Amino acid sequence: MLTVWAIGGIPEIVDGDDIAAIIGDAVDGTLEDGDILAVTSKIVSKAEGRVVLAADREQAITDETVRIVATRVHPGGVTRIVENSLGIVAAAAGVDSSNTPDGTVLLLPVDPDASARRLREVLERRFGLRLGVIVTDTLGRPWREGQTDVAIGSSGVRVLEDLRGTRDTQGRRLDVTAPAVGDEISAAADLVKRKSDGLPVAVVRGLSHLLDADALGARSLIRRADMDMFRLGTDEAWQQGFEAGRVARE
Amino acid sequence: MLTVWAIGGIPEIVDGDDIAAIIGDAVDGTLEDGDILAVTSKIVSKAEGRVVLAADREQAITDETVRIVATRVHPGGVTRIVENSLGIVAAAAGVDSSNTPDGTVLLLPVDPDASARRLREVLERRFGLRLGVIVTDTLGRPWREGQTDVAIGSSGVRVLEDLRGTRDTQGRRLDVTAPAVGDEISAAADLVKRKSDGLPVAVVRGLSHLLDADALGARSLIRRADMDMFRLGTDEAWQQGFEAGRVARE
Questions:
Q1: Which range, A89-103, A190-204, B5-19, is most confident?
Q2: pLDDT-based confidence at A174, cuts 50/70/90?
Q3: Cα B80 from chain centroid (whole Å)
Q4: Which ipTM value was assigned to this complex?
Q5: Which tens digit of pLDDT belongs to each residue from A36-86?
Q6: Smallest Cβ distance to A147: which of B142, B147, B178?
Q7: Residue A248: pLDDT band with limits 50, 70, 90
Q8: Is the model's pLDDT at A34 over the cut of 80?
């Protein structure tokens, strides 16, 4: 049985806030060993002072950008889908203009895995429990409408459940199956969080088998460029032997 | 509070099985008004006889393919990422070789929204409850490791929670926010289902606000090609004014 609920009582977060203490106060007395906390990256960014003036938004996007994936010019301006320094592909490099103080925009945390680790260490010590922490962000996807939450930072919880080498009910090897459980936990948490209503943290209970103090962070969910069959329309992809958009080109 | 659990007692499904009756027997006495059932597409395909000989796998992939997105030749053979007739972009057109009877592979259901609708109608009538049904499949993603479950069919439940027009805590319009809750529910269900251990159905409780008898099916989660900024490397994309892979091309 998986249970997921949002935590109330978290105030508007500002630069310098100790969110480990604030979240700890909000969950005090409710956590159990093996629980996972899903924390919206927005409050991590705010606490870490990753705020810039809205007037500097375009420059901020440029500064965060490692690779431009797609650009579209439209009447409302320019939308850029880019890869940022974390390896995350997102609209506007993850620079966020909603639920931010007026006249400002938010950048993603500098190192969300480190942010998750700090949160976990403080909360595990305070409560004497083994916990997992996932820092989530909301991303669009190719080919599909809408957005889902994914894990951009994590600590203490396996984000990729590698089933390669295990066997299916017919005894055959499940060669490529590796559920991205970190992203699935983030998605489950998004169903109860209401970021626009001040519920940026959820508790996920029932997945203690995924807890692992030495687990790789969410950075490990970023696919290496040279392994990415979807990296289309780029010279790298063609050089890797990909044959992209063949139907359309013919 | 969101709770999610897998349903035991579902036998191996074969061509012609009445899965509405089988799932109904397995959940009998446990459902409440507003519950959502997440059903792995594999058992829907099996019941609908969407089985072909493994020897015909390559031809089956070709038959299911509407558009080739990427092809990679490697020592083990050829992997094709393609768009199928449902608009779903998946490796091998969603043709599935795991947990299938020996010597066979499975195609996706012909019309997963219709499959979900039939399931819902039978189960709602049997139990006298309002229910949602989502048919799920496991997909890889560009740029990110591993797979997540998404909704490829649905009935009675909103799969896209359109927040456009609503306002954030600062009173600003959340212009582009539309959580793909159908995919997030599928992901949450995958965390408790163990497809390789015969647990292909999960109950999702706590989201009755998403129930809507007239909701569009999961087909509505497929992005229209002319709205897809990620549709890179294709002539359509360039004609739409996209500037794809600019850094790599320069």
A1: B5-19
A2: low
A3: 19
A4: 0.89
A5: 999 999 999 999 999 999 999 989 999 999 888 777 776 777 778 888 989
A6: B178
A7: very low
A8: yes
CA distance B142 to chain A (A): 5
| B220 at interface of A, judged by CB pairs closer than 8 A | yes
Q: CB within 8 A of A106, min separation 6: which ones?
A: A42, A45, A46, A50, A51, A95, A96, A97, A100
Measure the CA–CA gap between A193 and A148, rounded to whole angstroms. Answer: 12
- The closest of B21, B43, B179 to B106, measured between CA atoms, is B43
- Whether B150 sits inside 8 A of A144 (CB atoms) is yes
From the list B146, B185, B235, the residue facing A191 with the nearest CB is B185
User: Among partner residues B99, B142, B235, which is closest to A142 by beta-carbon distance?
Assistant: B142
DSSP A100: S
| Cβ(A64)–Cβ(A84) below 8 Å | yes
Residues paired with B77 in a beta bridge: B74
Residue type for position A113 = D
pTM of the model: 0.90
Look at residue B38 and give its three-state secondary structure. strand
What residue in B sits closest to A167 (Cα-Cα)? Answer: B196
Helix or strand holding residue B59 (H, E): helix B57-64
- Beta strand B104-106 with B132-141 is unpaired
DSSP 8-state symbol, B100? S
Across the A/B interface, how many CB contacts are shorter than 8 Å? 295
Q: SS3 of A84, please? A: strand
DSSP secondary structure letters along B192-237: T-BGGGTB-EEEEES-GGGB-TT---GGGGBPPGGG-TT-TTSHHH
Helices (H), chain A: 19-27, 41-47, 57-64, 112-127, 181-190, 235-239, 246-249
Helix (H) or strand (E) holding B43: helix B41-47
How does DSSP assign B125-147, residue by residue? Answer: HHHT---EEEEEEEEEETTEEEE
Contact B145/A102, CB-based, under 8 Å?
no
Domains by residue range for chain A, with CATH: 3-49+109-249 (3.30.1330.100), 51-106 (3.90.1660.10)
Query: Is the Cβ pair A98, B228 closer than 8 Å?
Result: no
